[in-house]
Inverse folding.
């Protein structure tokens, strides 16, 4: 709300090429070199280059399409498909909203200690928890979501259980100890190896937080090894 395609300087703090997000999902620029703005577009308000990039990669096989042309998310078929993508896309330590709804995500004790329980409220935490959740009272945005949820459920004739947690006040952020921190990203293996002269593993391992290299992408393991050990040669690249 309040943003236009001509406005500058918003929702692009992670475009800095000195940080890994800016390197992995390099932002498009205007003619004068200013970074484009990745404000909320589409049915679920896709925001920031680290969401536009993976969505573009999933739809087109390249991050460049939507990083260079983010306006496509606002006024093409991508408007709705971006919402479907975000709905199913896990971002450890956060689960996807789909995994909350279908029961794949089951909170462990760390989640329960943080007030993260299945229900509508925890989906708000996934969408925009840093702004709307965790306080002592339910904020206006969360109250609006609850209102719409109730009205839509009533329209469709779907009952809402009295015990369902609809808000997210008091909920803490998802963290690495939670059940949503599934190991789907490659990171440098910091372990010790007895098979190398210097003890380095020269390998990557799966971790439960976001990195540039996804276990779901072809050749990303090799890319992880090459990025973290640039002075070695990969001689058995069988992927």
């Amino acid at each position: 709300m309040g943003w236009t395609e001509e406005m500058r300087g918003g929702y692009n703090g992670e475009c800095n090429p000195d940080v890994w997000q800016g390197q992995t999902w390099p932002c498009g620029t205007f003619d004068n070199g200013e970074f484009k703005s990745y404000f909320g577009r589409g049915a679920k308000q896709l925001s920031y280059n680290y969401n536009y990039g993976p969505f573009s990669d999933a739809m087109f096989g390249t991050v460049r399409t939507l990083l260079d042309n983010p306006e496509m998310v606002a006024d093409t078929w991508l408007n709705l498909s971006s919402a479907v993508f975000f709905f199913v896309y896990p971002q450890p330590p956060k689960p996807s909203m789909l995994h909350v709804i279908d029961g794949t995500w089951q909170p462990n004790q760390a989640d329960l200690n943080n007030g993260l329980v299945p229900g509508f409220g925890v989906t708000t935490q996934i969408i925009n928890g840093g702004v709307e959740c965790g306080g002592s009272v339910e904020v206006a945005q969360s109250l609006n979501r609850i209102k719409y949820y109730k009205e839509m459920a009533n329209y469709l004739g779907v009952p809402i259980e009295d015990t369902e947690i609809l808000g997210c006040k008091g909920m803490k952020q998802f963290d690495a100890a939670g059940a949503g921190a599934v190991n789907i990203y490659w990171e440098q293996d910091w372990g010790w190896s007895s098979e190398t002269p210097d003890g380095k593993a020269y390998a990557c391992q799966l971790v439960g937080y976001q990195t540039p290299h996804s276990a779901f992408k072809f050749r990303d393991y090799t890319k992880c090894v090459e990025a973290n050990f640039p002075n070695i040669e990969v001689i058995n690249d069988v992927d």
Notes: Strands lie at 185-188, 204-207, 213-214. The two ends are 45 Å apart (CA to CA).
